[in-house]
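Need residues for this backbone.
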């Protein structure tokens, strides 16, 4: 039996994007401009917004309260209260379909869309200014490693890079003519982009040069997500007909393992808020969840269960995590709110001392896993 478990979304609209702000709270968006929210790790979902005749393609939050969603005919939504209410407007005279929204911080964000559109805001989305991209190819995804350094990808293998906040965008050689649907940066210089006909390309210089990876499939890939430099997942569907695709790598894309979704529906979006804890959304309101990275046959307990103690919490520098019920050897990983791995080590003691000096202030999540158990939790760095 596979380890991607269906969740009850309560809707029939196809869902295109999913994003979690912590281990429990997440959002999914899709057709009819539906926005779903969960506060219990996907056990139940509530619809918060629904506008017939439009669709939402991308959702992203910059913190626990402030989030954005974009979609067809320039539809743009913003929430400042954790999805309880959303303000809406149509940008650019409804001429462009908006495919991706990405905020670097509370003020600076970018949108990519049809016709080569890239727009930037420096005031938290109050105003948007279109940028010159010198392409009419639809842009499907973008990501930034700093407020000024980013990459956008799209139709016909289009890859654009900027190092000056989009003042100029330079076309890069991707090595493929297939549509690129998604891009992900697990660190400041390593990027993975994925797209149609099983295409996955990798850059180790911030998106300027690319090498093709062999995924072993010709199915269309709609999104790629890497928690760290080695562990990533791509999802999608067969290029003709309905058949889902999940591939996972644990060696930086050298090899890929097929995982079972348990469905024939197309898979559209994926997000891992922590190592091993992931969500996929797709057609007909489909939502899938894994607590063990999609592996088969591992006897895991639910993420967030199990006892632990953190002292002190909030963390200032060094701190201790204690797992009173744990025995054996396991992997302890700590990730930030973007799902990027900050620390990973093998542990065999119930009490582990961690040096967090120099780490940025904010919320972090930890996960202790082995072949029998999993314990996850949250810590705060002052």
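Answer:
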């Amino acid at each position: 039996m596979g380890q991607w478990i269906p969740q009850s979304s309560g809707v029939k609209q196809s869902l295109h994007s999913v994003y979690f702000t912590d281990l429990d709270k997440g959002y999914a968006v899709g057709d009819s401009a539906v926005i779903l929210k969960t506060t219990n790790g996907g056990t139940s979902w509530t619809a918060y917004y629904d506008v017939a005749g439009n669709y939402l393609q991308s959702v992203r939050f910059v913190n626990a309260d402030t989030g954005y969603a974009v979609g067809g005919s320039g539809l743009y939504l913003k929430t400042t209260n954790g999805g309880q209410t959303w303000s809406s407007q149509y940008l650019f005279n409804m001429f462009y379909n908006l495919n991706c929204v990405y905020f670097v911080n509370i003020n600076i964000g970018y949108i990519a869309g049809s016709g080569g559109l890239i727009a930037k805001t420096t005031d938290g989305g109050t105003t948007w200014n279109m940028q010159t991209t010198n392409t009419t190819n639809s842009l499907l995804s973008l990501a930034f490693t700093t407020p000024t350094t980013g990459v956008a990808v799209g139709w016909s293998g289009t890859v654009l890079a900027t190092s000056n906040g989009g003042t100029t965008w330079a076309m890069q050689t991707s090595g493929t003519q297939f549509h690129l649907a998604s891009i992900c940066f697990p660190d400041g210089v390593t990027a993975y982009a994925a797209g149609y006909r099983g295409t996955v390309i990798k850059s180790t210089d911030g998106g300027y040069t690319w090498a093709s990876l062999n995924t072993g499939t010709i199915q269309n890939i709609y999104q790629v997500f890497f928690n760290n430099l080695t562990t990533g997942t791509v999802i999608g569907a067969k290029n003709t007909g309905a058949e889902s695709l999940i591939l996972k790598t644990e060696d930086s894309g050298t090899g890929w393992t097929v995982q079972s979704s348990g469905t024939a529906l197309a898979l559209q979006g994926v997000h891992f808020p922590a190592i091993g804890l992931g969500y996929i959304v797709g057609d007909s309101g489909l939502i899938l969840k894994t607590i063990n990275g999609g592996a088969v046959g591992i006897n895991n307990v639910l993420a967030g269960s199990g006892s632990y103690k953190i002292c002190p919490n909030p963390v200032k520098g060094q701190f201790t995590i204690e797992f009173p019920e744990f025995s054996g050897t396991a992997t302890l990983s700590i990730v930030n709110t973007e799902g990027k791995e900050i620390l990973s080590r093998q542990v065999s003691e119930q009490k582990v001392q961690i040096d967090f000096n120099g780490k940025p202030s904010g919320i972090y999540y930890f996960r202790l896993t082995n072949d029998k158990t999993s314990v996850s939790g949250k810590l705060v760095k002052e």
